[in-house]
């Protein structure tokens, strides 16, 4: 079989976004959004997901499903990636912290939506690959470092939004402290395996007000 061309991949990417639209529509009562915003939709459409998965899975990159990326980790289902980013309600001027860079797919989407992205990854190999791919795609407003994401990135705080791509029993205190007290938004999965819920939090002063969105299944947040 002939290899996929850029034209083929563009068609598959458009189809993936259409599947995301359908899932938003089907779940709109649960997630509170009938569709991704035009900004988020355009950003997802622009990012070549096949560059952020292992080469052996490139042909599967535009299926609406998670894929293994190594070290018992996965790249999130495209719908879930789009939903979590949609729930951040990002503005072009926002500073964003991402916990769990992975191979950089969601980082690349965030970079198209916010002024600055700070991303923490616990797996050194992932951080190196993601950094190289993001640079190759021209994303200069992204900083990646290796470390314990539950501790955030205090030197760059406060953040307008925080996206956590792994589950914890509760929102880490360090992340709450680094979120802007004037309406900062946080999206992450909460709970033990088999009982996780995606939550959206808004910080108002010293209080983080959480709202449950839907049941999810994520790997657990690694701390070191």
From TrEMBL:
Belongs to the methyltransferase superfamily. L-isoaspartyl/D-aspartyl protein methyltransferase family. One of its GO terms (biological process) is protein repair. This is Protein-L-isoaspartate O-methyltransferase. It is found in: Cytoplasm. GO terms for cellular component: cytoplasm. InterPro entries: PCMT, SAM-dependent_MTases_sf. Its EC number is 2.1.1.77. One of its GO terms (molecular function) is protein-L-isoaspartate (D-aspartate) O-methyltransferase activity. Coiled coil: none annotated. PROSITE patterns: PCMT (PS01279). Pfam families: PCMT (PF01135). Keywords: Cytoplasm, Methyltransferase, S-adenosyl-L-methionine, Transferase. Transmembrane segments: none annotated.
């Amino acid at each position: 079989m002939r290899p996929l061309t850029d034209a083929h991949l563009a068609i598959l990417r458009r189809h993936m976004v259409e599947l995301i639209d359908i899932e938003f529509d089907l779940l709109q009562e649960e997630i509170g959004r009938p569709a991704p915003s035009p900004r988020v939709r355009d950003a997802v459409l622009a990012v070549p997901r096949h560059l952020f998965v292992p080469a052996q899975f490139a042909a599967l990159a535009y299926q609406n499903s998670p894929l293994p990326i190594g070290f018992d980790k996965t790249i999130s289902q495209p719908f879930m990636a789009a939903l979590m980013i949609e729930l951040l309600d990002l503005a072009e001027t926002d500073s964003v912290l991402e916990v769990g860079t992975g191979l950089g797919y969601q980082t690349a989407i965030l970079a198209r939506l916010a002024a600055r992205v700070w991303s923490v990854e616990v797996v050194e190999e992932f951080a190196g690959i993601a950094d190289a791919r993001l640079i190759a795609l021209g994303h200069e407003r992204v900083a990646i470092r290796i470390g314990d994401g539950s501790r955030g990135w205090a030197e760059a705080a406060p953040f307008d939004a925080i996206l956590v791509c792994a589950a914890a029993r509760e929102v880490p205190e360090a992340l709450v402290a680094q979120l802007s007290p004037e309406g900062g938004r946080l999206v992450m999965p909460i709970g033990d395996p088999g009982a996780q819920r995606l939550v959206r939090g808004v910080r108002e002063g010293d209080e983080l007000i959480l709202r449950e969105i839907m049941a999810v299944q994520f790997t657990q947040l690694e701390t070191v």
